[in-house]
Specification:
Structural class: alpha+beta
Helix content: 25-40%
Largest sheet: 4 strands, antiparallel
Number of helices: 8
CATH superfamily: NADH Oxidase
Order of helices and strands: HHEHHEHEHEHH
Shape: globular
């Protein structure tokens, strides 16, 4: 998928440019050891006070939990996410375990863990797609999530790449479209 390797303004390591949000997944399972490696990678993300507030609910394709996760996704994500090898539900623990106070950095830290997981995955030729398009209340109910303890971060689809032609439109076109980002000067400012 050469088209998905971005042209960057500045030299960026290939393990970063290789990561992208794929939608076309092959019929190839992710092994237990590969999945454990991905979760281990996530566990090494930085976190406020080393709290590690992330928690992952994992569903493998073919399981009842996998179908429950697909059912919780919005219709724009279901047609392609159902082909992933694994779906994850990423959660953030709301309060510090050490003192019970609100952890206002929890979602940031879970985002760092998710990104670390996806970078490790890309290094293993496994691709992931984070999804914010899901039905919140249905997800809370389906997975009996205690909202006093956890906040939903996102769903993540994981799998090996398949050809874009395996997708229906508009997903096929999205899969083939070149990646782009805002220019560095649009997202940063050097202070005097």
């Amino acid at each position: 998928m050469e088209i998905k390797i971005p042209q960057t303004e500045n030299p960026v390591h290939s393990f970063i440019t290789k990561r992208w949000s794929a939608r076309s997944f092959a019929e190839k399972p992710i092994s237990e050891s590969e999945l454990n490696t991905l979760i281990e990678a996530a566990s090494w993300a930085a976190s406020s006070m080393n709290e590690q507030p992330w928690h992952y609910l994992i569903a493998k394709k073919g399981s009842a939990s996998f179908q429950k996760m697909v059912d919780c996704l919005m219709v724009g994500n279901q047609p392609w996410a159902k082909n992933a090898s694994v779906l994850l539900l990423s959660l953030a623990r709301k309060n510090f375990a050490s003192n019970g106070k609100p952890n206002r950095h929890a979602m940031h830290d879970v985002g760092a863990a998710n990104t670390t997981l996806l970078l490790q995955a890309a290094n293993m030729d496994i691709y992931g797609h984070m999804m914010g398009g899901y039905h919140h209340d249905a997800t809370i109910e389906a997975f009996e999530i205690d909202e006093n303890e956890f906040e939903i971060s996102c769903f993540i689809a994981l799998g090996y790449l398949d050809a874009p032609e395996a997708l229906e439109e508009p997903f096929k076109t999205r899969e083939l479209t070149a990646r782009s980002r805002k220019a560095v000067n649009e997202i940063s400012a050097v202070l005097p």
